[in-house]
Amino acid sequence: MLNRELSFHKTRPARDPSDSRPAWSENDPAFAVVENDDEVAIRTELPGLSGREVSVRCENGVLHVSGGKIGMNEKKIGHFRSRENWAEIFSRSLELGNRRGWSHARASLKDGVLTVRLRKSATAGDPRIEIPVH
Questions:
Q1: Which of 94, 120, 122, 130 yields a CA-CA distance of 20 to 30 A from 7?
Q2: How big is the chain by its Cα radius of gyration, in Å?
Q3: Is 50 helix (H, G, I), strand (E, B) or coil?
Q4: Domains of the chain, first to last
Q5: Strand 80-95's sheet: what is its strand order?
Q6: Quick one: which of 10, 58, 57, 43 has its CA closest to 109?
Q7: 1-11 pLDDT tens trace
Q8: pLDDT at residue number 65
């Protein structure tokens, strides 16, 4: 039964061009991580989302990125009208491995790319940081 469920999730119908759901709804967004001596930078593509629709926090060395979009598709066929309400929500977590803490954290969402920058700290900081997205 597990194989059937997995194959069902792998094979999705072709997207309707009039579908207004975000493209990332097909798969969870992937992270690209770059680390140097001073900071960790994480990037992910979130086309169609604004900063208000994305939540970023770092808690006990784990970065949590979540968000989503809610919408409605409406089609009129002859005398009938079809409405479909939808919600596309994602949540991803990334173990950062740095338990020391972060002295500065910022996040920006520009042209569908979320960039999170966490500056490393030599001392232990707050174990939980809410990072506003600009």
A1: 94
A2: 19
A3: coil
A4: 2-131 (2.60.40.790)
A5: 80-95, 62-77, 54-59, 128-131
A6: 43
A7: 333 333 233 33
A8: 92
